[in-house]
Specification:
Order of helices and strands: HHHH
Strand content: under 5%
Number of strands: 0
Largest sheet: none
Structural class: mainly alpha
Oligomer: single chain
Number of helices: 4
Helix content: 55-70%
Length: about 120
């Protein structure tokens, strides 16, 4: 999942930047410069994906020098680690006005207790 997440975090901004450039922020003009920018983005993405795959493959077979070289060619010796959210909170949704007032009132009273230092 880290590999896919890191590729998407690189590919999506490149693609979005290219689309915005090609469409002239939706004024839709295209010339050789915008095509060149698209090709540059594609080559950059290919470079990134190939080196991330090399880094992952080297790590899986335990070849530390290969992993280190691929990582350095990406600008950092270690691959990124993406962790899940630190905590999840339950959410209740009420669609009637009285329930909303009750919930807001309870939340305000709880916040006031926390501020005052009472339990």
């Amino acid at each position: 999942m880290n590999l896919l997440a890191s590729i998407l975090r690189t590919a999506v901004p490149l693609l979005a930047g290219w689309v915005l450039t090609v469409t002239g922020a939706l004024g839709i003009e295209a010339d050789s410069v915008t095509v060149t920018i698209g090709i540059t983005a594609a080559i950059t993405l290919a470079y990134y994906v190939l080196l991330r795959l090399a880094e992952l493959g080297a790590a899986r077979i335990g070849w530390e020098p290969g992993r280190l070289v691929a990582g350095l060619l990406l600008g950092w010796a270690r691959p990124p680690e993406y962790k899940g959210p630190a905590a999840t909170l339950p959410v209740r949704i009420h669609f009637d006005k009285q329930a909303l007032r009750t919930d807001v009132g309870q939340a305000l009273r709880a916040a006031a207790r926390d501020v005052d230092g009472h339990s």
